[in-house]
Amino acid sequence: MGTQNPNAPSRAQSAPAADPTRTRHHGGGITHDNTRHTTRFVVIGNHLAQHKELSLLAIGLSCHLQSLPTGAGADIKSLTARFPEGATRIAAALRELEAHGYLRRERVRTSTGRIVTRTVSCNQPKAARRAESSTTCPDRPSRPREPRPRKALPAVPQPHNTKIPGLFQAATDLLTDLRRHDSRLLLSAAETAHLAPGVAAWLERDVLPGAVRRVLTADLPDEPLRRPAALLAHRLTDRLPPPPPFRTPPAAVPPPRHPLQNCEGCDRGFRAPETEDRCRDCRAVTAAA
User: Fold this and answer.
1) 212: nearest Cα among 165, 173, 155
2) What is the pTM of this model?
3) Which residues on neighbouring strands pair with residue 270, listed in sequence order?
4) Which residues have a Cβ under 8 Å from the Cβ of 132 and sit 6 or more positions away?
5) Cα–Cα distance list, 268 to 49, 64, 274 (Å)
6) 186 and 219 fall within a common domain
7) Poorest-confidence range of 53-62, 118-127, 236-245?
């Protein structure tokens, strides 16, 4: 009874603190059976594959976007056709990637004047790095952002003859009516005044108003128009037709010169067709009688 075990601990010992970054599986967990890729592979950083805030769908979608060749479809419609997830879930995943800097969408103008959306997949979270750099210096005073000056509209063609009656009014009416064909083409008074000479240059070249309207409203992009007036100015300049062929104006026909004869009523000389035998005054007296 009095014998003591010298190997027994003098007091209970607490278990070692668990490492929050490591999960114990008692011999289980994942192992890797890897084969080195030599073709058709993409490098994905652990900052994306093990991101703590992105959803699994967003991570997988970013990996898919990184694997696509340049020019492949990356819009919601194309991705919905490729994967079983619906448009709502894919759109939400794209917004996640955009918020964390793995994706950005840019609006660019093609050579034909069409505005398209270009999707840029980033393999490094640029937006997140900018956000972190802005929070590392909390004592640094923030500079107020200066307002961006509004970009001037492109120049438009000018008519050669500005004295044609009703030319500018017809051009203004055509521009004002564009919103009835596409509500996105609602122009301000200043924009209408800037574009009216360009439309007048088309009308001056014998282009019918309906043809001008079709050129300005056909094949517009599906996305919202950020600067519809700039798009119209580009089309008025880029697609301006040549002047109409020169036509010799018809020669003026001189009025007929009737023979000189004597009036049978007053014997006064007058000029008139040979069918008339009395002057104007005598014909008036005869008509009154």
Assistant:
1) 173
2) 0.39
3) 261
4) none
5) 114, 106, 15
6) yes
7) 118-127
